[in-house]
């Protein structure tokens, strides 16, 4: 589903979208093998994610959300199946390592910001550019641009300790975007924040997404966060995870926070709660 372009939304980022899909997940599953034996975390799963789409992976704790997202990010290897990012394979069937080519299209945000406390904010944001030998001036310029987008323009020269948890997570988002990936993968990025901060972060993230046209895959176990943010909610079942349901959310953008009080919002949330066995 393509979004309309309220307020002159720019063209979506279609880099590498030769096959049409931003991410193609084909028969991807994961079984962990360790001292405790084998744990089947995710059954073979198929999913196509469209360029510029905002997809939320929702499900109970332990259902394999992080497992799937980490495979999409090339951080762990699928037991079976293949993942294609745009027109570049990230994992072909049987690969034990991700392809470097495809990794460049991906930015990853974890639940914890994990900033380096001895580095100023701009240097935390620009960290990934240092290994690429980008000049200091250019790093600073790009960091300032990203800081502006996440509402941190005034904090470039501060240290992380001066920032609240929400602000630190904004830094982590800026850092994930510094190499201009077309896809942003987020694992419960706001899970450690209080409810009000979380609402503000959701509003900021929606704006950022509308502005940049990135493809976003976000993991959460918050139903209301899922319904507020998503174009499409992929509901995973209890372990071993599999896709139990896919719910399209077609509220127009940008969505005001008050939309959480709309009857239709409540209906979708109720449906999800039922599916999750919480109703
Ligand atoms: P979620 O993010 O939905 O809470 P995870 O993907 O983290 O779920 O985990 C899915 C299942 O896989 C859980 O049962 C978890 O205990 C198991 N698991 C996760 N990581 C490992 C690992 N490295 N080794 C063994 N089992 C794991
Ligand atoms: Mg998780």
Written account of the structure:
The protein contains nine helices and ten strands. With 279 residues, it is an alpha/beta fold. The strands form two sheets. It has a six-stranded mixed sheet, with helices on both faces. Strand 1 and strand 2 (37-49) form a beta hairpin. The chain is globular. Bound molecules: adenosine-5'-diphosphate (ADP) and magnesium ion. Residues 32, 34, 39, 41, 59, 61-67, 239 line the site of adenosine-5'-diphosphate. Residues 23-263 form the ABC transporter domain.
* Bound small molecules, deduplicated: adenosine-5'-diphosphate, magnesium ion
The proportion of strand residues reads 15-25%
- As laid out across the biggest beta sheet, the strand order is 6-7-8-3-9-10
> Can you tell me the CATH architecture of one domain?
3-Layer(aba) Sandwich
Structural class: alpha/beta
- State the distance separating the first and last CA atoms: 29 Å
Q: Which sequence of SSEs, written as H and E, runs from N to C?
A: EEEHEEHEHHHHEHEHEEH
CATH homologous superfamily descriptor of one domain: P-loop containing nucleotide triphosphate hydrolases
CATH class of one domain: Alpha Beta
Number of strands: 10
Spatial extent as radius of gyration: 18 Å
Q: Helical proportion?
A: 25-40%
Largest sheet: 6 strands, mixed
CATH topology (level 3) name of one domain: Rossmann fold
Total DSSP helices:
9
What are the segments in which pLDDT stays under 50 over at least 5 consecutive residues?
1-10, 12-17
Shape descriptor reads globular
Mean pLDDT: 93
